[in-house]
């Protein structure tokens, strides 16, 4: 005897209706059910389509952390800028008040001319490029509809993004050829101020290395002087008195050593020595840290990519390698051409007027469109 499908379907409906009635008697409060539905929706949104991967899940889970970091960085940007100005100004004051008189009194005229000329040139380059990097707009894509080609749509701005454009969560807008957001500039590093940022890092590193090397002997002398006078009270110099000197009452009763007076060590000498130690420690530390950052950016510029593109190109290289193919950066025009484009060198004299001297020239291109060369060729002949 075969079972009729319609009867089975009717039985299932009856069981389901009874379970629904039983469930309705024990229904949870409305706010609990709404909270549960909302949490279930959030969980389902993590794998809502086939394009979802580990990066999307990671971004979704850590979105509150990213928002907090962006918020704090945005409001503390002015503090970081003031800190850079204060620390740099303190080194300049020490150089003029403490080091310059020593240089003028001890060095030969040739060395005096070298230190004065190089020091002031380096200081001008640091101040100029830091101001331009902090005040120059990195470049933004157009907000109105136009015919500019784009490669994607920003999920935050809901606007078209040209090639090499990325969204900055701190500035809360898209940046042309974005490298990163620098809190020490309180500004994004993008197409129009990338050269200023790199030049500032380079000349600041050179200045710190210059102060560290030229002030090494002064640092050692200042440190030894502080240590010597610190233990002066513990190791007081004295001359032993014996024989007739004790009989004629040269010393008070019970004292057998004649205490010599300590050499003069004024408050001014103490502050000078501490200033030299402060300058050497600060410049050496910043020189090492900022030097490593400068070398890293120099490598990226030689490859024709930014910090963000380095991560993207690495993932593309791995993806293409799985298919047995080799990924090539379409914006890499060759090592020399990359530096010409980055520095804006169009003729030989520009290596001096645009690289070794302060220059406010605009970078190559508009940041919206980029030429792609499949083979290496001299993009800007020099």
Automatic annotation (TrEMBL):
| Annotated GO CC locations | membrane
Q: Which residues cross the membrane?
A: 75-99, 111-131, 196-219, 239-256, 276-301
| Keyword flag Transcription regulation | no
Recorded family membership: Belongs to the DHHC palmitoyltransferase family.
Does this entry carry the keyword Membrane?
yes
Per the UniProt record, one Pfam family is DHHC
Lineage of the organism: Eukaryota, Metazoa, Chordata, Craniata, Vertebrata
Domain spans labelled Palmitoyltransferase DHHC: 152-311
Which membrane topology describes this protein? Multi-pass membrane protein
Q: Where in the cell is it found?
A: Membrane
State the name under which the record lists this protein: Palmitoyltransferase
Catalyzed reactions: L-cysteinyl-[protein] + hexadecanoyl-CoA = S-hexadecanoyl-L-cysteinyl-[protein] + CoA
Keyword entries, A-Z = Acyltransferase, Membrane, Transferase, Transmembrane, Transmembrane helix
Molecular functions (GO terms): protein-cysteine S-palmitoyltransferase activity
What the entry says about domains is: The DHHC domain is required for palmitoyltransferase activity.
């Amino acid at each position: 005897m075969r079972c009729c499908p319609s009867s089975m379907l009717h039985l299932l409906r009856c069981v389901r209706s009874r379970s629904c009635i039983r469930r309705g008697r024990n229904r949870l409060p409305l706010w609990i059910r709404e909270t549960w539905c909302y949490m279930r929706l959030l969980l389902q949104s993590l794998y809502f389509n086939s394009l979802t991967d580990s990066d999307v899940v990671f971004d979704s889970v850590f979105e509150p952390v990213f928002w907090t970091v962006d918020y704090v960085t945005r409001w503390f940007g002015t503090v970081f800028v003031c800190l850079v100005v204060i620390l740099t100004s303190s080194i300049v004051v020490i150089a003029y008040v403490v080091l310059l008189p020593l240089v003028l009194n001890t060095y030969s005229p040739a060395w005096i001319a070298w230190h004065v000329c190089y020091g002031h040139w380096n200081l001008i380059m640091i101040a100029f490029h830091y101001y331009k990097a902090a005040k120059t707009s990195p470049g933004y894509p157009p907000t109105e509809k136009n015919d500019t080609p784009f490669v994607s749509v920003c999920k935050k701005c809901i606007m078209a993004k040209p090639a090499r454009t990325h969204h900055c969560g701190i500035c809360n807008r898209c940046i042309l050829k974005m490298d990163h957001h620098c809190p020490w500039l309180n500004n994004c590093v993008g197409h129009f101020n990338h050269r200023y940022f790199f030049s500032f890092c380079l000349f600041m590193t050179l200045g710190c290395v210059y102060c560290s090397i030229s002030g090494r002997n002064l640092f050692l002398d200042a440190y030894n002087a502080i240590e010597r006078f610190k233990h002066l009270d513990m190791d007081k110099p004295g001359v032993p008195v014996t024989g007739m000197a004790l009989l004629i009452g040269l010393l008070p009763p019970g004292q057998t050593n004649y205490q010599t007076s300590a050499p003069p060590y004024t408050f001014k000498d103490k502050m000078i020595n501490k200033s030299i130690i402060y300058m050497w420690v600060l410049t050496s530390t910043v020189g090492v840290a900022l030097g490593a950052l400068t070398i890293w950016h120099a490598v990226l510029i030689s490859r024709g990519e930014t910090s963000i593109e380095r991560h993207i190109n690495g993932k593309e290289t791995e993806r293409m390698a799985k298919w047995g193919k080799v990924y090539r950066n379409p914006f890499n025009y060759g090592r020399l051409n990359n530096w010409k484009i980055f520095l804006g060198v169009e003729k030989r004299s520009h290596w001096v007027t645009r690289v070794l001297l302060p220059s406010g020239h605009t970078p190559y291109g508009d940041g919206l469109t980029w030429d792609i060369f499949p083979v290496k060729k001299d993009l800007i002949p020099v």
